[in-house]
Amino acid sequence: MSINTIEENRNRNLFGDNDEVWLFGYGSLIYLVDFPYLESRPASIRGWSRRFWQGSHDHRGTPANPGRVVTLIEEYDAVCGGLAYRVEASVFELLDEREKNGYLRFATEMTFTDGSHASGLIYIATPDNEAYLGEASEYEIAQHICRAEGASGANSDYLLDLARALRELGLEDRHVFDIEAHILQSMDSG
Ligand code: SIN
Known about the structure:
Bound molecules: succinic acid
Structural class: alpha+beta
Radius of gyration: 16 Å
Strand content: 35-45%
């Protein structure tokens, strides 16, 4: 699959005739909201775990020194919490540009905190994209993140901002918080 997913995402018409679509965000879409939205609500999806297994050649790294950012990995019965946004369908043009480094749009079901559900879209970077880096220990991921930087800033800021945003939402994510602890430790030790 091409590393730039803009064209493929444009060809995935997952909106039907809907003018408004729910978007589920689980990574930087939680804390870096540079797109217009009509409403946002905490939500979760089942069967997926958040992992720092995707490479970033554009925002938090370079092709020569990719950063590590989150994608979702299928895991039976896992629950991934995040933030859902109701957006106008036209906003996906902006989002496709932002998520172009390996992420594809998929349809998903999400559950809001009051137990109600909605269908919507999500961006996932699957293992067959060229920027995918795959599994590593939380310690190794932290070391990697400390060395990477891209056009959107330091890779460590992506992780620290995400960890902070998850806490503000009252969400627990062992993988993210373990990497955060390693990063803070290596910052402390200079
Ligand atoms: C997301 O936040 O939902 C996708 C991954 C990212 O842009 O960080």
